[in-house]
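pinging the channel bc i need a second pair of eyes. not urgent but kinda urgent?? the chain im working w is below, pasted from the shared doc
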Amino acid sequence: MLFRSIGYKIPSRDKVLSVLFAFVGALAAAAIYLWRAARLQHLGWFVPALALLAGGALVWLGNQSRTSSPSALSVVQLVNGVPGSHEYQSSGFGAAYSPDGRETELGSDKGGRVMLNMAGGSLQNRRMEWTDLGKYRWVNLEQPQGQRAMTMTRSGTARKPFIAEATFGPQGLVGQLQLGDAQGVSDAVINTNWGRIGVELNPDGTFVASADNVLTRNQYLASQFLTDEQSRRQKTLKKVLDSVDSVARKSALQVFAWTDPWVDGLTLDPQRTVKGSALVQMPLTITRPAPGTDYLIPSPLLPFRNQRGTGPDGLTSSPIWNFLKNEGADRDLPGTAWFVFEPPASLLPFEAVSARVRVEVSGPIGRLEVAGWKNGELAVLKEWIDPVGLLEFSIDRKSTRLNSSHLVISYAVFCLKKK
């Protein structure tokens, strides 16, 4: 993805077609003229000469297109900020493009390491020369014509602190986000082990992660229509979250945001432009809202699992939900599953007033019921016949049992009956 964003472009189709049409037109005009003059034998040298002229024009266009592209650097970085401090650590990859193979300027005055892949390059000696603490430059570094991969790592101190704090409000999560000295912050998401929430950022650093802005299973950005850059960001974030060694998998609650590249202190050729983006990640701290506050808990912050043992109806819960994979299990037979929910510990104790149930159906189901336990018996709250797509239903304390006095909401907030 890095190599696609820099480098030269081939001549446009219009220019190439113009040369070809001019070649065909000149050839036709010459043939008609020589035929009328009874001198067709001259086509024997005229056609090759005209072909060489057209080929030379195409070569000139290609060379102009290549040399007109500026020297550029495209980077993608992962920045880990330390909450409550100014410290961060960054690592990333880059693609450096040079239209003409010559000695390039590369170094840093704020530490870190930048390594350019010179495999297959010249055998000229080159070295990293340290001039002071945290300052170095590459000497005799001649980048061959074209593109070269590079790696970069750095631990640094930002002028502004890293802050990621939130609490619950009427819309969902509200809080403050400050990513050090980051510029161009956008496409922020909150990631949990149970899903992701899109974040709406304000210029003053405040944000809202609404309960209505929960992302789907394969969605990693809140935008409905993605630009080419956002498509690259979505693929990159997916790889980060899928990585076994990812910090995001070791922390239950993380905030991610995309920013401009963090190349402060990197010494480059003056004419070299920098493109790309950086993914900043840091843990999110949640505090308890003020007493008496009405708030919503977004579903990624409300993990649930099948009821172990028997449900309130005395029957064993059916395994129609895979708790470990957080997805439905393939099952041909009817079944009833009771679920228990675990709210954030920082909210306890609280009074549950209502809940909204969302079920996404991607396969054939004859009938689906949402039921609750009321007055010692099972009460069907909602029924769908041949459902498909996203189903939504709201329940309140009067319609079922919403017990919020313990860490885990006991028994049935609702159950699903698949028939």
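so The chain has four helices and 28 strands. and The longest strand covers residues 87-98. — does that match what u expected or am i reading it wrong
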